[in-house]
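[audit] Reproducing an earlier prediction to check determinism. Same input, same settings, fresh worker. If the tokens differ from the archived copy the diff job will pick it up downstream; this log only records the rerun itself.
[audit] input (75 residues):
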Amino acid sequence: MKKESKRYWLTFDATSVRRPLLCEMIRKHNLTFDIRSANVTPELGLMALELKGDPKVIESAVRWFRRRGVQVDPI
């Protein structure tokens, strides 16, 4: 299995910032992650996230976040 590392900016709105989405995504997709930077308030969350693993699994995780209302942009 090919391993890759990709970085993204994640933007969480007031609803998604209260949910444990990172924990849920990691359990579901079995990826390694590194939080490079984060700023979270009750209204907004911004996170620079590095995901490591199979490229197809990383893309699946990105789609998973987007379906839950998280804006995901490559860095």
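[audit] rerun output stored. Observation attached for the diff report: The domain at 4-74 is CATH 3.30.70.260 (Alpha-Beta Plaits).
[audit] end
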